[in-house]
Amino acid sequence: MTVLVLADHDNKALGAATLNAVTAATELGGDVHVLVAGNGCAAVADEAAKVAGVAKVLLAEDAMYADALAENMAALIVSLADSYDVILAAATTSGKNILPRVAALLDVAQISEIVEVVSPDTFVRPIYAGNAMATVQSSDAKKVITVRSTNFAAAAATGGSASVEAASAAADTGLSTFVGAELSKSERPELTSAKIVISGGRGMQSGDNFHLLEKVADKLGAAVGASRAAVDAGFVPNDYQVGQTGKVVAPQLYIAVGISGAIQHLAGMKDSKVIVAINKDEEAPIFQVADYGLVADLFKALPELDEALG
Amino acid sequence: MKVLVAVKRVVDYNVKIRVKADKTGVDLANVKMSMNPFDEIAVEEGLRLREAGVATEVVAMSVGPQAAQETLRTALAMGADRGILVKTDETVEPLGVAKLMKAVAEEEKPDLIIVGKQAIDDDSNQTGQMLAALLGWSQGTFASEVNLDGGTAKVTREVDGGLQTIELKMPAVVTTDLRLNEPRYASLPNIMKAKKKPIDEKTPEDLGVDISPRLKTLKVEEPAKREAGVRVESVAELVDKLKNEAGVI
Ligand SMILES: Cc1cc2nc3c(=O)[nH]c(=O)nc-3n(C[C@H](O)[C@H](O)[C@H](O)COP(=O)(O)OP(=O)(O)OC[C@H]3O[C@@H](n4cnc5c(N)ncnc54)[C@H](O)[C@@H]3O)c2cc1C
Ligand SMILES: Nc1ncnc2c1ncn2[C@@H]1O[C@H](COP(=O)(O)O)[C@@H](O)[C@H]1O
């Protein structure tokens, strides 16, 4: 069996989630190949070649792959698919965009966001915002899978010595073009791979007040997240959203501040090792999942926390 | 210009679902059902395009049992012009739904198809991308803004790093994200009017589509339960516990 893992990257560096995807691929058994498609991204391929467990890296460089637009990426993957039994990617927005298109072109089901490999054809995946776990068996000869990164350890970034081979580009579909991007810039760790995450909700009242949270985040080396309500209200950008329909995180420590704990939010953070909730409403459902609950006004508690962390 | 929107009947987002004791699935008896929230956003976007004079007709379609009629009625009450129910009592996977939608699209010839990014029951996040693939159309997933201009659609997408804007050749498939719009509520007069709007019924057989599942659900279980922990009285106590008990800071 050979598994093709689609690398997540920005043409400069390999996305952290790819390492988790490689681990899931390894658990399936067989050879693991990684596809790096982009433009001017040879350094990413070299990085992928060093990942432990990777046997081969395919490098497809072309201007049309620079922004990983789904139509051309899917065409490329389908052109390579004959040699593979499984095509797999991390369930990032990029993986979620591209892989279902690949699956449909191959006339197979996609198995979305698996959290466990039971056997090469059987997987566990969350449904209903993680309130139920389904064990599903695929009858498709070729499998297309996305992986929830937080449920698979990261493969070692070094230790491997895979060969890098050029893959030829597929025909340009001409269906979409890149116009621009507005990416959040931050010195803080990336939300989905941070060891500590501190998130704010509607209780924060404004974007300005997020500074209270950011000060604490910087002392802890934490990433900053948010509830949907905080994003909808415009306090913070969309990429801060943690939850069923945002990002899934599972850090060592998750601190929820002014967040009530709706099931859609819990879906994105309840696998965190230690959960802290700071909320002024002692009945807030977030306390039902919190290891440490502090009933307090966040405008008092956050400056105190900042102070206590020295 | 015609817009086709997909509406799925799902367990209401406020319901705390229960797993059946025999592990065969989720208990859906006497549970409140609603339109998938992302599909309300899809309907709303279609209506706004019609109100802006860009679209002339908004057609809603659903795949499901007879009861999915109610979801179509909700779409009609919001303002959609007519409905199409592809009736089946089988569970249809995203690939099957995409194939049924493709068959309907070939009859209806819409210029734009809007679906939700994700159904909140199966959490698949696949159908729109699959439909675009099967039709050979462009796709604008996780959209927070859609602007149609001549033969193209400019779509701003919510991605992991922030926002990305792309231009799609039309016809196109767009999937909605939460910030695309705020869906309207159906007014009472519109609910009454919707009763008279047509809903066309078809079956997968009528459309010549094979919807047999590719995945077999072996079991459905409750996730591991998280025990509630302790209450701390002060920030000082919290920091002490995080340092000395949990060892996480
Ligand atoms: C289709 C769909 C998808 C969704 N996806 C997501 C998702 O991915 N992620 C997500 O988070 N949500 C999601 N939601 C929304 C979810 O249902 C909740 O509405 C949302 O999580 C609520 O955010 P919140 O807890 O910040 O706000 P609220 O529920 O309003 O809670 C605010 C909390 O702040 C507390 N508070 C207020 N002031 C203070 C203060 N001064 N000090 C301390 N505490 C204070 C209050 O007691 C309250 O508990 C989704 C909903 C739908 C329908
Ligand atoms: N049975 C269905 N009937 C109508 N629309 C559906 C159905 N299943 C999926 N969809 C559409 O596809 C979107 C994504 O669903 P999914 O791929 O299952 O997460 C939904 O938001 C709907 O717009």
Description:
- Chain A: Keywords: Electron transport, FAD, Flavoprotein, Transport.
- Chain A: One of its GO terms (biological process) is fatty acid beta-oxidation using acyl-CoA dehydrogenase.
- Chain A: Heterodimer of an alpha and a beta subunit.
- Chain A: The electron transfer flavoprotein serves as a specific electron acceptor for other dehydrogenases. It transfers the electrons to the main respiratory chain via ETF-ubiquinone oxidoreductase (ETF dehydrogenase).
- The complex is a heterodimer of chains A (310) and B (249).
- Chain A is globular, with a radius of gyration of 20 Å.
- In chain A, helix 3 crosses helix 4 (93-105).
- Chain A has helices at 16-28, 42-49, 70-80, 93-105, 210-220, 228-232, 263-266, 298-308, and strands at residues 2-6, 31-38, 56-61, 86-90, 110-114, 116-119, 122-127, 132-138, 143-147, 163-166, 176-183, 196-200, 223-226, 253-257, 274-279, 292-295.
- In chain A, the strands form 3 sheets. Chain A has a 7-stranded parallel β-sheet with strand order 5-9-4-1-2-3-10, with helices on both faces. Chain A has a 5-stranded parallel β-sheet with strand order 13-12-14-15-16.
- In chain A, 25% of the residues lie in helices and 28% in strands.
- Chain A starts with a strand and ends with a helix.
- In chain A, helix 1 (16-28) links the parallel strand 1 (2-6) and strand 2 (31-38).
- By secondary structure, chain B is an alpha/beta fold.
- Chain B has one domain (2-246): HUPs (Rossmann fold).
- In chain B, helix 2 (68-78) packs across helix 5 and helix 3 (94-108) packs across helix 4.
- The model of chain B has no long low-confidence stretch (mean pLDDT 97).
- Chains A and B meet through helix 3, helix 4, strand 5, strand 7 and strand 8 of A and helix 3, helix 4, strand 7, strand 8 and strand 9 of B.
